[in-house]
Write a structure and sequence with these properties.
alpha/beta; Rossmann fold
Length: 348
């Protein structure tokens, strides 16, 4: 089978590998249909690391995918061969203190697809996964939308962590796939008004299609432009790009008692805040770590917003051009929102 592996910074190679076999009665063999290129994958591609997670070459990244069940272990009951599935890339132990307290996403023994030191990713033709990670797709859901369930689940989880958003005013800083997923989840939660910032004009325009009442570039007057429209400021701000400038703007945009949701992954090891503004406004800071039990909520977003979720996929590449897909996303060129790599184009 084909597998794409990182072989160095900004280097990727298409290799041939044996097709994996089932070894556990609770595992399934999946034929990969398509894989979404995520910003975290691009971090590994361009810098070789995210914080303490450092790539040891060669290594396959990729964790957003959908596919078809090819074979199942003897004790699998939730799916069967021929089922089209979205796949949760997180594999918790279900036995540690975090798992037992309802925090499987911070499992102390977590294995996550495409994460260095844990398990190689899904940029390949076939993959073996625990059956428990597979969720059957509705007939109305395409494979590409199935691959989008992972970022949509993060958006749904972030909206859930933010508390009751009904009737609230929020801002989303950064409207790549995660920011747009937050936007759709916030709409679903009944948010009154959503403001966005995004340097790529095409993404900003799409965010307005998705329901943002205002969108603009993250320039120096962004805060003033939003506060002219909302003098009482934002109830919550979702920082989705991992930039220091966006963190500064987020704090300035929040009302006293507002909540800052940190979702973006910075390339640096440390960020800073104005402690004066944080303290005087009593700003609540909430980190968002992937998603926790929100895959079904991600699928629900596909059902509620079928055209908008489909519209998030702007570029498609055959497996042989995966590096081109990564270069495009890394450069944020051509108005890219989500680039999708197709391993089984006939089933996408």
């Amino acid at each position: 089978m084909r597998v794409l592996k990182l072989t160095g910074l900004r280097r990727m190679q298409l290799l041939d590998a044996p097709q994996p076999a089932l070894t556990s009665p609770m595992d399934v063999l999946i034929r990969v249909a398509c894989v979404g290129v995520c910003g975290s994958d691009v971090h590994y591609y361009t810098t070789g690391r995210i914080g303490s997670q450092v790539v040891q070459y060669p290594f396959a990244v990729g964790h957003e995918f959908a596919g078809t069940i090819e074979a199942v272990g003897a004790e699998v009951r939730n799916v069967r061969p021929g089922d089209r599935v979205a796949v949760d890339p997180a594999m918790p132990c279900c036995a540690c203190d975090q798992c037992l307290s309802g925090r499987r996403h911070t499992c102390r023994n977590l294995r996550f697809l495409g994460c260095p030191g844990q398990i190689e990713g899904c940029l390949c033709d076939f993959l073996v996964m625990p059956a428990a990670t597979c969720i059957r797709l509705p007939d109305t859901c395409t494979m590409e939308q199935g691959a989008l369930v992972e970022p949509l689940s993060i958006g749904a989880y972030a909206a859930r962590l933010a508390g009751n958003l009904r009737g609230k005013r929020i801002a989303i800083l950064g409207c790549g796939p995660i920011g747009l997923s937050v936007l759709l989840a916030a709409r679903r939660a009944g948010t009154a008004r959503i403001y966005v910032s995004e340097p790529i004009a095409a993404r900003c325009a799409f965010a307005r299609q998705c329901g943002a009442v205002w969108g603009g570039a993250p320039s120096g007057d962004l805060v003033a432009a939003i506060l002219r429209r909302e003098p009482l400021a934002m109830d919550a701000v979702f920082e989705c790009c991992g930039r220091q400038a966006a963190l500064d703007q987020a704090v300035e945009l929040l009302k006293p008692g507002g909540r800052l949701m940190l979702i973006g992954i910075p390339e640096v090891d440390r960020v800073s805040f104005s402690i004066d503004l944080l303290r005087r406004r009593e700003i609540d800071i909430q980190n968002v770590r992937r998603q926790n039990e929100c895959v079904e909520a991600g699928i629900e977003l596909v059902k509620v917003f079928p055209n908008l979720t489909a519209g998030m996929v702007t570029h498609r590449f055959p497996a042989e051009q995966t590096q081109d897909a990564f270069d495009l996303v890394a450069a944020c060129e051509d108005g890219v929102v989500k680039a999708m790599v197709q391993f089984d184009p006939d089933r996408v």
